[in-house]
Amino acid sequence: MSSKFIPQEGSCYCFSNTYMINNTPIGRFICHCSICQEFTGQAYNDVTILLKSDVSQLNLIRTKFRRWKLPPNISRGLCTRCNKPSIEMALGGSLILVPTTNYPDIAALPEPTMHLFYNRRASDMDDDLPKYNGFVQSQAIIVKALAQGLYKRVAKR
User: Fold this and answer.
1) pTM exceeds 0.85, yes or no
2) Per-residue b/e over 89-106, b at no fewer than 16 CB within 10 Å?
């Protein structure tokens, strides 16, 4: 990843839903929870986290949002044309989650920092990233990672 982030136009697989990503994500992780597996149709969701202010020009007219589980922490959007992930929103839209497959230049992104809900994995991952199991452990570590990412961003100013 280069030090200067160049804005990218994110989109679903068929480009029916688009948006501009204007800042480096504050985090990236790999989630193995059963909801992410169902949402993506894959063994895991490699996802970035951004602030609402980092994303502009949201053209999500063909995105259908759904909440899989209560409490509705994350609203996940699927394209109504290609049925692939478009974008996800958390904390009432304050946080935006974008699957890395929706970026045109994945190499410009920070590397993933962890695996969440690893106990739900479809297969083992052969990497050196920390692996967190279960709801409590996974949620606690993502809150910590978000706080660290926000602190790094503020400290750069």
Assistant:
1) yes
2) bbeeeebbbbbbbbbeee
